Amino acid sequence: MMALLLRDLKLSVRAGGGALIGVLFFMTVVAVIPFGVGPDLNLLSRIGPAIVWIGALLSALLGLDRLFQTEREDGSLDLILMQEHPLVLTVLVKCLAHWLANGLPLVIASPLLGLFMNMSETAIGAVALTLLVGSPALTFIGAVGAAVAVALPRGGLLVSILVLPLAVPVLIFGVSASYAAVEDPAPFMPPFLMLSAITMFFAVLGPVGAALALRNAGD
Amino acid sequence: MTESLAITKFSDLANPTRFLALVARLLPWMACLTAGLFAVGLYLSFTTEGDYQQGETVRIMYVHVPAAWLSMMCYSVMALSAIGTLVWRHPLADVSHKAAAPLGAAFTLIALATGSLWGKPMWGTWWVWDARLTSVFILFLMYLGLIALNRALDDPSRAARLSAVLILVGFVNIPIIKFSVDWWNTLHQPASVVRLDGPTIAPEFLVPLLVMALAFTLLFFTLHLMAMRNEIWRRRVGAQRRMAARMAGREA
């Protein structure tokens, strides 16, 4: 399992892996927003947490189709399916590796983008913290979509369509927790705890669903 | 003994010819019953008095509420069929959840459209992003995604198994829709028909509503059986076309 984790990490970080493209996309999306709504700093600081979250959600979706696609192309997916370890665990480890390579850089890049958005220190911290807790849920949900679409020739777009509706609760609680940290009357903990609960829930459901789909995708 | 008999009967339906015969016998009755219930329900909906506050717009409820119930029931039927696909590999279950997806999308669209027509005079806006409306909209998107997935895969049995997985994962949305009005403070009113301390809705509105709900449910099952029959026919035609092409290739 450790070996699989390291292998996936190495593959995604080295050339052609595309882990950094996600971060680049994230920055581009967030940088485009001020062009759209105008460079009004007050407005930007108000919508900042939501923009950063949406950007992170989109770039998390962008990398999803790679989760099982490369394995299918070079045939190692069949080896993974045939090995003795429970497939659910393998999928879980692959999700973790994918999150370390694609999700964690987004979390690390988010404070910088928060500065661009003229957000206060508390808001930046809250967004980074909620992203840290919430982005694994995006990977786990996305794993199901990636596994379902693995057999499709052009699955990338379909994965996004299938996964986005399920990812909406993560977005809702992530953004509301970030706003609660800034605005006084709303308490921070309830939405934050809901976000953690969603992540843990999908940490179980996601790999199970993805493993089921992978077993059925092979013919 | 009766249970094992029921199971045998159920697995007999795996034979499409038997299923088609059963459908052919059931469909006229169900269609007649549906039409009769709709006649009674629509008559009741248009003759009962309007609400003293909402006036005539309360009649939208007789379409809106059953359609919304049906949109959730359709997904539950699909989830049961998905279990049937994954656990028992029942071939009819594949056909069932594939046929139900467009129906569910249609009922959800009806619920959303009538809801927004009702919302304009009552709330003063076509659409608000509150929990109930948003979760139903997500349900609509999930139906469309499932239809897209089914169309993207050309092997029907693999498409059925993959969409079954997705249906089961997406089932988490159904309790969210049901309880969204209790968990969050929403503009949408809380449940007023199905609740522990009895319905809080006046009987003169409740009777037409229940008749319409029954009519909608029967309409769903009628359409669902028809769609399943069409799907089986479509597969047979496809198989025969392939066979004809093979024969033609052999002769040439």
Structural domains of chain A: how many: 1
Question: Fraction of residues of chain B in helices?
Answer: over 70%
Q: Number of helical runs of chain A?
A: 9
Indicate how many domains the architecture of chain B comprises: 1
Output mean pLDDT of chain A. 81
State the secondary-structure class of chain A.
Answer: mainly alpha
Discrete helix count of chain B: 8
Question: In terms of topology, how is this protein built?
Answer:
The complex is a heterodimer of chains A (219) and B (252).
Chain A: H1 2-13, H2 19-37, H3 41-62, H4 66-74, H5 76-82, H6 87-116, H7 121-148, H8 156-182, H9 189-217
Chain B: H1 2-12, H2 16-47, H3 61-88, H4 91-123, H5 131-152, H6 156-170, H7 173-183, H8 203-251
Give a summary of the structure in a few sentences.
The complex is a heterodimer of chains A (219) and B (252). Chain A has 219 residues and is an all-alpha fold.
Explain this structure:
The complex is a heterodimer of chains A (219) and B (252). With 219 residues, chain A is mainly α. Chain A has one domain. Chain A has nine helices and no strands. In chain A, helix 2 (19-37) runs antiparallel to helix 3. The longest helix of chain A is centred in the middle third of the chain and has 30 residues, at 87-116. Chain A is elongated and about 55 Å long. The mean pLDDT of chain A is 81. With 252 residues, chain B is mainly α. Chain B has one domain (14-234). Classes of the chains: A mainly alpha (219), B mainly alpha (252). Chain B: The chain crosses the membrane at residues 26-46, 66-88, 100-119, 131-150, 162-185, 205-226. Chain B: Belongs to the CcmC/CycZ/HelC family. Chain B: It holds the Pfam family Cytochrom_C_asm. Chain B: Residues 11-188 form the Cytochrome c assembly protein domain.
